[in-house]
Write a structure and sequence with these properties.
The chain is an alpha+beta fold. 27% of the residues lie in helices and 37% in strands. Strands 3-2-1-4-5 form a 5-stranded antiparallel β-sheet, with no helix packed on it.
Length: 112
């Protein structure tokens, strides 16, 4: 019985002296969520693959976007009124955009 009591007492001491596990993953997740909530401006070059002037959407096949560590890809962007005038599918363009973690909005776009 004495051995049993010593075992449980030792276990209790160890449990009370070890700090609770830290939530490092949760801390990083909070930092990552904050970074996504703050829009970032980036730039790229690519070609227009589709334009929908009614919805203000443009699809671009672009090269790497270093500011966001993106590889080359084709994706859709939203544009403001008047930004798509004079552009057509196949045009090579240079553009800047704002990325909020969910949507990319064209800030400026020019033919190359």
């Amino acid at each position: 019985m004495k051995t049993f009591a010593i075992f449980w007492l030792a276990l209790l001491v160890v449990a009370c002296t070890n700090p609770a596990p830290t939530t490092q993953a949760n801390s990083n997740a909070a930092t990552d969520a904050t970074a996504l909530s703050e829009p970032k401006t980036a730039s790229g070059e690519g070609s227009i693959t589709a334009i929908d002037p009614v919805t203000g959407k443009i699809s671009l096949a672009h090269g790497p976007v270093t500011e966001l560590s993106w590889p080359p890809m084709t994706m859709g962007f939203t544009a403001k009124d008047g930004q798509l005038g004079g552009l057509k599918v196949g045009d090579e363009v240079k553009f800047t955009f704002r990325w909020d973690g969910k949507t990319a909005e064209i800030e400026s776009i020019d033919k190359i």
